[in-house]
Amino acid sequence: MTTMVAAIQTPPVLLDREQTIAKAVGLIREAVQGGASLLVFPEAYIPGYPTWIWRLRPGGDMALSGEIHAILRDNAVDLTGDDLHPLQDAAAEHGVTVVVGINEIDSRFSGTTLFNTVVVIGPDGAVVNRHRKLIPTNPERMVWGPGDATGLRAVDTPAGRLGCLICWESYMPLARYALYAQGLEVLVIPTWDNGEVCLATSRHIAREGGCWVIALATALQGSDIPADFPQRDTYFEPEEWINSGDAVVVAPSGAITAGPLHREKGIVYAEIDVEASRRARRSLDVCGHYARPDIFSMSVDRRALEPARFID
Question: Has residue 36 got a pLDDT over 80?
Fold first, then answer.
């Protein structure tokens, strides 16, 4: 069973949820015309990765950080509402699976905390999984809260059993193993990371897990930062590459099938075959004949970690 994959690394409309979603709907249409039925967007794509956190001075730009964070909060995605319905409707209209990174707001409890989340939308338009990044990295902790493991799952899709890890979660061996142990066949890594080390990690994971790996970041230049971004010209040069993108598709053997798409704003297409994943594990199955459960063991707590329980 083969599936055409589209890894989409075109920039969002930074800090604008509605315009970014409208752009994503257009990109879905373009990718479908290219023959794709599994469409993948980068980390925090809606309404954009908070790249400014790596440039503002810790402690010295607190007022500016607060101003930008308020805009991000107002444009974050509330999964209890209808914020994602245009994307869900597009997935259903075209009968495709869409994986997209979002800034998610917790409207149920605090109404304020944001999470770095990746959502899997099935070809019927339903959200089939939501995974929140377990550990935000370095200054990301000033933007996002840590997630729980409720979404650390491999779910059935027409492309195979699909799971997601966000950016440096790919360096968490136990998180990877938790997905391998669920019959993982396709691993999607929406990320902000790029370059040779990131590529080497994707190839290692594909070989280790006997799975397809689709990894991508947003290809972004200074000129892609909107003109109304607070103090834009102080922190960004128009022609600089803030992120090179480097979307890549890696086969279960560890061989690169497509990409990396370096410093280009576009779509990487590749055909993947879920049978290749199953065959790859004939000689190396880290959760099967290459495991030693008599020596090693692990458990994963996938219960929802809620800050309050109300008993009426």
Answer: yes
Residues with Cβ < 8 Å from 116, sequence gap 6 or more? 43, 44, 101, 103, 104, 132, 133, 136, 140, 143, 144, 147, 166
111 backbone φψ class: left, alpha, beta (φ>0; ψ -120 to 50): left
**266-308 pLDDT, tens digit each:** 999 999 999 999 999 999 999 999 999 999 999 999 999 888 8
Domain boundary assignment for the chain: 2-280
Report pLDDT for 60. 76
With 0.85 as the threshold, say if the pTM is over it. Answer: yes
248's enclosing H/E stretch is strand 245-250
Catalytic residue positions? 43, 133, 167
CATH for 2-280, options being 3.40.50.2300, 3.40.50.1580, 3.60.110.10, 3.40.50.740: 3.60.110.10
- pLDDT score, position 1: 76
Is the bond leading into 139 cis (omega within 30 degrees of zero)? no
Average pLDDT, the chain: 95
Provide the sign of the torsion angle of the four alpha carbons 97, 149, 213, 288, taken in this order.
negative
Please report the sign of the dihedral spanned by the C-alpha atoms of residue 238, residue 17, residue 141, residue 153: negative
